[in-house]
Every structure is written in C-alpha cells, then in structure tokens.
Design brief:
By secondary structure, this protein is α+β, with helices and mostly antiparallel strands. Helix content is 34%, strand content 28%. It has 3 domains: 2-74; 82-97 and 154-248, D-amino Acid Aminotransferase, Chain A, domain 1, CATH 3.30.470.20; 102-150, Dna Ligase, domain 1.
Length: 261
Amino acid sequence: MRGWLIYDKEGAARNAWFIQRLQEEGAAHGLQITLRVCQKDETFVGELPDFAIVRTVYPQLNERLEKKGVRVFNNAKTSALANDKWQTYLACKRWNIPVLHTALFAEHFPVVVKSVDGHGGAEVFWVNDKNEYQALVRKMTERGKRFIVQTPCDILGKDMRVYAVGGEIVAAVLRSSQTQFKSNFSLGGKVELAQADETQRRIVAQLYDKLHFDFVGVDFLPSGGGWVLNEMEDAAGARMLYACSDIDIVKVFIQRVVNSL
C-alpha cells in the first residue's frame, strides 16, 4: 500500500532520522511511504495515497485528505483539538478530565501565558504582574497570536509525557528542570523513563474513547498530589523517548498503521 508522510519544510529538515525510521519500518511491512513536504494551504489533486501520516501541525491538511477518502494518522478531530490548547481545555471540562484552571485573560498573578498553538515549550511565558502581562499581550496581539492564561502548577519544572498508540500507553517519560519552570527536553530538561499511574491511564483511555487517535503524546502536570492534563501533542516528538530508553515507538506505530489498513 502507498502512503504519504507529510511534514512542513522545517519539520522535514529537523526530523530526517525519524522520517527514515518510519519509511524503513513501513517497508518491512509492505508499505511504500513517500515523504511529501506540504504547506498549510496545500490542495490535493491527482492520484491520492491509500493513507497519510501527517507529522505537521496543520489540521486543515488532515481534514482535506479525510474528505477525499484517505485514511489519515491522526484523524482531523484529534489534530484540531490537540493543536488548540483552549479547545483542549474546554473539551477536558466537558469530559470531566482534570486540568489546571485556564482562562482567556489574567485573573491573578503570577500566571503562565501560552499561545494556543505553540509546541515544544515555545511561546510559554511566566508572568509576575499586571505590567508584564499587558506588555506580553500587546506583543502577542501584534503577532496575531491567540493565547490562554493558566494557573501555575504545584511543582515547577516537572511534568510527564505519556506516549499512546491507539488506546494503549507505550511509555511514559518524566521531564524535569532545575533552572526554569519549563521542563521540555528540547529546552535542556532532564528525562527519565517512568510509569504512568492509574489516573493517567484513565485519562488516556477517556481521550481515546472520544478521539480514536493513532499516535499522541499526552502531557501531565503535578497538582494536588497527583497529575492533571496539561496538553496533547498531535505530531508528538519522540527524541526524549529514544534518548532514555530502548523502546522503538516507530515499530509500535507502524504496526498500528498496518492493523488499521
């Protein structure tokens, strides 16, 4: 079967090893996976593939391909929700999934301000007071950025990424930083393999029941002695998982693709 592996230009250059690994594992299962570099406004004409693995954050692409009958990994519903932190928060409130208090404006300080579509710890800011907040709002508004305002969690510089393929948790990685409130691996955070607890397993199962995702990263923050959902990554990066374990999540994911097709 023929498939497209869709990236944007920057992502394709940054993820050469991961792309090669997906293509190699796909070939081992009889899948011909071709890299296709796309832009947000891409339209698809001519012969279409049997499936598409979308590894860029343009939910519009997932939706356009689905409407043409292509099996898309992840589906458009998952991509749209995971790439909008405000919609993720609203969905979690509807589904009774625990999350930190989140709003569209600051009600008290300090707060954490995030763009709704940021990834990898980018566009996440600690704001101490009203003056800092107003200056940041002006800057983000000028750049056309939508944002959310979040109450800080109980323990700063710590979170957990849970990797899920289908409804099954494949691995969990604890991230921590001694120097800043963000613990992302791409920003220098320390990573170690961990075990998802019962609350995290229940939340991942709830998300799968609602979204039927294929491969996501679900991020949790410590709160009240347990964990609450922070956000969900659609095109979840796996560098830190390969850095701290011998778990080959590409192998697990490609098996999901094969089974789905």
